[in-house]
Amino acid sequence: MSHPQLSLQLYSVRDALRADEDGTLARLAATGLRNVEVFDFVDRPRELADALARHGLAARTGHAGIAAPGQGREALERTFAAARTLGLETVYEPMVHADRWADAERIQQTATLLNDAAVIAADHGLRVGYHNHSQEFTPTVDGLSAYEWFVARLDDAVGLELDVYWASAGGNDPVALLGRLGDRVTALHIKDGAVVDDPFTSGAPFDIALTRQVPAGRGEIAVDAALAAAPNAAYAIVEFDAYAGDIFEGIAGSIAHLRAQGSVR
Question: What is the domain extent for residue 128?
Fold first, then answer.
């Protein structure tokens, strides 16, 4: 069995990057990381590629909006050209808001947009995929969660990046969910913390600190079992939406746990 490559979503250190990009990347490289997942990269792909290279880091996955209604081909071409400059393999849509999961017509629209984006991405030698939060699991269509109904309408060229924390917040046993999704899952977001109810469909204000996110293996999410249940995932990507302590210590804790478990390479 091939283990996924370890990576880190740079959103975890967004504040540190704004303050000192080179210093932040140097600290990440010092942990032994060799892969990162980028965000907000379309306007500065060469600058970001050069910064990563200076610290021996590579980006093979990235987050960018590729499933917005009304988004034209020109915007997608620009996104995928930036992705190629960075050396990405897959661009994941990071979030589709709760109102677009409310009925079958809007869910089908999102699936169609991603299917169409996959065709354009292929012209650039890239793949696309979808990264979940929890709002995709709360509504149901034809007896399925909106998310699984949506997945059934995606072309095989569209992969899934399963965020195990937010899937749990959506009411799922992530291991059982991964069993149903099978080889559609091309990457995992490894995130641990407290299990909360889906905050995105309630309409009420939500404090991200309530997630009480902690290094992998110290919270309530079955991160190790999820990794074992996703043998086809190419990347295991550590992420923190929020962290109460020193974020670099949190990242180091997750890396140490995953390496001790022998579940990543």
Answer: 5-261
pLDDT digits (tens, 9 = 90+) for 216-265: 999 999 999 999 999 999 999 999 999 999 999 999 999 999 999 999 99
Q: Please give the Cα distance from 27 to 32 (Å, whole number).
A: 9
Residue 83, amino acid = A
Are 127 and 235 a contacting pair, CB within 8 Å? no
Q: What are phi and psi of 128, to 5 degrees?
A: -125, 165
Task: For residue 255, give both structure tokens.
Answer: 């890396």
What ranges in the chain are assigned the alpha helix state H? 14-19, 21-30, 45-54, 73-86, 104-123, 146-151, 164-169, 174-181, 223-228, 247-261
Chain centroid offset of residue 152 CA: 19
With a cut of 90, say whether residue 46 has pLDDT above it: yes
- pLDDT tens string 183-217: 999 999 999 999 999 999 988 999 999 999 999 99
Number of domains in the chain: 1
Match 């709002």 to its residue by tokens.
135
Residue 223: which of 179, 254, 202, 199 has the closest Cα?
A: 254
